[in-house]
Every structure is written in C-alpha cells, then in structure tokens.
C-alpha cells in the first residue's frame, strides 16, 4: 500500500513540476533528473554540509527590498553567469518528493529572478554539472542564507 502511495505522490509531483517549468520563460526544461541519478548523489554531500555548518559560514542578507535581494543574489553567484545549463530543484517541489530538472538558461539575470519569484518560500538550489558549483538559498524569518560549494564533476 505504501508503495502505491509513493507512486501516486511521485506522479503528482512530476505533473506539478512540469507545470511549474512550463510557466517559466527564462529557463527551458531539458529533462527531469531521474531518481537515483549519480548527479543527485554527487550534490548530496555539499547539501548535507550546508545544513551542518549553519549560518556561521553562510552569506547572510537581511530582508529588504526585492530588487536589492535579487541584485545581491546575482552578485554572489555571478560565477554561474556563463553556465548555460543548470541542475535545479524545481521550485516548490520538496520532501517527500523532490523533483530535479536539467534546464537551459536563456538569460542569467532574468532566470535567477524568475526562479526565486516562482519559489513560494524563496528557497533555491542550483548546481552546474560542468563546473561542479552548487548554491543553496534559504529564506529564514528575517534574512536569507546563501551557501556556495563545489562538488566533483563527472564530465
């Protein structure tokens, strides 16, 4: 019975993720990353490390104007600017069924804004398979925490 429930949850999450991706203009869906993908294993280590170190090692920005936050985010992650393909956690997909997507970035600045605005809680995870960079933006009560890491690449 539990297996059936998991399959239904997964199917619903995939449908929602595809709708979310279809609504975005500045990132184009290449494909959905398969569960058990080696890439998801590769990025798992830095994500666990981010949660372990807490805000002491994060870039922190107090909440203020929308444009200021987007500018801050773009400046901090400008190393992703030349990356044309990202692996992202689809906005608003989360536990128990996270949906990851490989996307083509059509415009860096507009894509960052669009992904952040699409996220109901303001959280983002973006990775580059070619460079190994990974970022996670978390929204807290009165501030944002940005974690930047690098993982092994398989290319």
Tags for this model:
alpha+beta; 26% strand; seven-stranded antiparallel sheet; 155 residues; 4 helices; globular
Q: What does it look like?
A:
By secondary structure, this protein is of the alpha+beta class. It has four helices and seven strands. The longest helix has 22 residues, at 2-23. The radius of gyration is 15 Å and the shape is globular. It starts with a helix and ends in a 5-residue tail after the last strand. The relative contact order is 0.22. The model has no long low-confidence stretch (mean pLDDT 88).
Largest sheet: 7 strands, antiparallel
Q: State the assembly state of the protein chains.
A: single chain
Through-space gap between termini: 40 Å
Total domains, how many? 1
Radius of gyration: 15 Å
Provide a count of the helices.
4
The chain-level mean pLDDT equals 88
Fraction of residues in helix: 25-40%
Unreliable runs? none
How much of the residues is beta strand, in percent? Answer: 25-35%
Shape field: globular
